[in-house]
């Protein structure tokens, strides 16, 4: 089967993410007006009680959002924030100047961290794709290497991510308070989950058939239809149930549009001004008309930002050809798992698995002594042996990057290669170290000798990814491609099955730096900054959002702090 094109992959994304997979589900969604009540609703909060409204802006770049705020073309967001007083302080808001994503800076791991207050090695969700060696199951809630989008559908229909999360969500910690979540992958424990109904889709198909998924016309883009339809569902739920204590409004269109925009970050600016701002405005207007806005904390946060890249095969480190990282692992002496969500039993004799995150890749290795012959199924409950299994792959990538042998295309594409001695699943995985061509070196030691200010807070964030009870899910080897903005665009690379005009996933400043803004219309930006000072101040990480939101609600009798925030703080 030919590899799906970028456009058809995006079509599948829309169809499968938003169109429920079975007729039964479509009926259910139609009958319930595009929402799923997940638990009994408490009575609507009184108008004078505190409300929290979160705009979860997928892929929003902080500088671009600020450009939109200052341009005069994003009037709703600009009016909410008020006058810019400098250093992140606005008249009614505080925008933390150096907020950071966890690693990888890619969608699913980052939203998981934001809405649990935990980190991947503890929450069990390490990326857009991962391999669970205990079950030999490959997960791709956002497909990056694999062409199939079935897991993407399950995010909506079957709470795929919620079932993998090992810690409580923000919503589960808000005992007795109502929480509504629109579209977001992390919705376990929310009172109501709203999705886009099938009725909204003829427009999307129309645009697709006309070839408009080019990132050129933001107003008519499929992304805009998706975001706007989602807002309509949010407002419908307000009509039916009242405005909840907590509302999460997920806006996936920013990310999808930016990936496909030939003018890259300038495209995102157009999208924020002409689509996102209006979506935000419709929700704010509803709060205002019900007299709630002055009692509402409004947050803007992204999962990651974007690095401009070249959308061509030279810069895409792919999956299935003679020139891909898969081939490097194969040449190192491994049977490599094909990039596919599901494999027939006859193909289960693989000894290595690759999972892609855009500007990062995970490699999982078996102890090959358990499966030496073709057809042998490896015992994946055993970790790989450092000398016999991990080192050959490390050396192969190091050599390929230096010399272009045995895969010429890999020459000069890699920045850092990480690994660690394997531990069996069930025990805490060890911290990742840097491979320097000969040895594994602790990250802080490596950085002392090779300072890398462009890779922000690298050791701590790699530990969050890999070092902990679920750290084995991030693999035995992690590859960072050359990706940062201090390199010309011709020297930036990404691991993916498709090419895009922008990517993310790395530890670079550009895609790790996120907007994290707290606003309240009748309070000052300095008050917002004071609140944020307990949650990371001017450089919070994503894991601060959950405890911050918990703190914004006044204590209730018998209300307990969530286990998630206790564990991760
Ligand atoms: Zn994202």
Structure commentary:
- By secondary structure, the protein is an alpha+beta fold.
- The protein is 35% helix and 14% strand.
- An 8-stranded mixed beta sheet has the order 1-9-8-10-2-11-22-5. A 6-stranded antiparallel beta sheet has the order 14-15-19-16-17-18. A two-stranded antiparallel ribbon has the order 3-4.
- A hairpin with a 4-residue loop joins strand 17 and strand 18 (440-442).
- Helix 1 runs parallel beside helix 7 (150-157) and helix 11 runs antiparallel to helix 12.
- It is globular and about 70 Å long.
- The chain starts with 5 loop residues before the first helix and ends with a helix.
- The chain binds zinc ion (ZN).
Keywords:
single chain, 569 residues, 6-stranded antiparallel beta sheet, 22 strands, disordered N terminus, binds zinc ion
Main sheet summary? 8 strands, mixed
Distance between the termini: 48 Å
Structural category is: alpha+beta
Task: Report the portion of residues in β strands.
Answer: 5-15%
Strand order of the largest sheet: 1-9-8-10-2-11-22-5
| Low-pLDDT ranges | 1-33, 199-212, 558-569
Helix content: 25-40%
Cα radius of gyration in angstroms: 23 Å
The geometry reads as: globular
Bound molecules: zinc ion
> What count of helical segments does DSSP give?
21
């Amino acid at each position: 089967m030919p590899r799906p094109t970028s456009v058809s992959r995006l079509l599948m994304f829309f169809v499968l993410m938003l169109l429920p997979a079975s007729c039964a589900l479509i009926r259910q969604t139609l009958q319930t007006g595009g929402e799923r009540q997940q638990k009994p609703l408490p009575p609507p909060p009184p108008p004078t009680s505190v409300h929290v409204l979160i705009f979860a802006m997928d892929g929003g770049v902080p500088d671009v959002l600020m450009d939109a705020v200052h341009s005069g073309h994003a009037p709703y967001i600009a009016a909410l924030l008020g006058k810019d007083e400098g250093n992140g302080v606005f008249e009614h808001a505080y925008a933390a100047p150096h907020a950071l994503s966890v690693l990888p800076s890619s969608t699913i791991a980052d939203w998981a961290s934001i809405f649990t207050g935990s980190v991947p090695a503890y929450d069990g969700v390490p990326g857009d794709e991962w391999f669970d060696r205990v079950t030999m199951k490959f997960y791709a809630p956002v497909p990056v290497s694999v062409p199939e989008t079935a897991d993407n559908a399950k995010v909506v229909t079957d709470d795929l991510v919620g079932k993998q999360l090992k810690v409580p969500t923000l919503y589960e910690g808000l005992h007795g308070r109502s929480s509504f979540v629109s579209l977001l992958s992390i919705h376990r424990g929310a009172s109501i989950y709203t999705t886009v109904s099938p009725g909204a889709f003829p427009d999307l198909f129309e645009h697709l058939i006309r070839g408009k998924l080019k990132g050129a016309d933001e107003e008519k883009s499929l992304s805009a239809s998706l975001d706007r339809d989602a807002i309509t569902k949010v407002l419908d739920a307000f009509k039916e149930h009242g405005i909840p204590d907590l509302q999460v409004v997920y806006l996936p269109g920013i990310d999808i549009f930016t990936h496909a925009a030939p003018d890259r970050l300038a495209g995102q600016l157009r999208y924020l001004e002409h689509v996102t701002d209006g979506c935000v405005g419709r929700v704010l207007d509803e709060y205002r008309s019900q007299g709630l806005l002055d009692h509402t904390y409004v947050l803007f946060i992204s999962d990651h930002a974007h690095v401009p890249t070249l959308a061509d095969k030279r810069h895409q480190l792919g999956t299935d050809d003679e020139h891909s990282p898969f081939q490097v692992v194969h040449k190192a002496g491994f049977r490599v798992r094909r990039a596919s969500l599901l494999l027939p039993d006859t193909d289960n004799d693989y000894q290595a698995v690759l999972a892609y995150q855009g500007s990062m890749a995970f490699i999982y290795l078996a102890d090959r002594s358990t499966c030496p012959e073709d057809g042998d199924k490896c015992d994946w409950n055993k970790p790989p042996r450092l000398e016999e299994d991990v080192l050959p792959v490390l050396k192969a990538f190091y050599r390929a990057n230096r010399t272009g042998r045995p895969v010429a295309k890999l020459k000069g594409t890699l920045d850092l290669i990480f690994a660690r001695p394997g531990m069996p699943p069930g025990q805490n995985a060890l911290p990742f170290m840097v491979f320097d061509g000969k040895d594994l070196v602790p990250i802080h030691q490596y950085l002392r000798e090779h300072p890398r200010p462009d890779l922000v807070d690298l050791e701590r964030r790699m530990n969050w990814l890999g070092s902990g009870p679920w750290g084995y899910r991030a693999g035995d080897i992690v590859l960072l491609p050359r990706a940062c903005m201090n390199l010309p665009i011709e020297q930036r690379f990404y691991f993916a099955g498709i090419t895009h005009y922008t990517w993310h996933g790395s530890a670079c400043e550009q895609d790790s730096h996120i907007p994290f803004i707290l606003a309240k219309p009748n309070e000052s930006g300095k008050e917002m900054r004071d609140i944020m000072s307990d949650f990371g101040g001017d450089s919070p990480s994503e894991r601060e959002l959950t405890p911050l939101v918990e703190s914004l609600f006044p204590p209730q009798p018998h209300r307990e702090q969530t286990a998630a925030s206790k564990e991760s703080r």
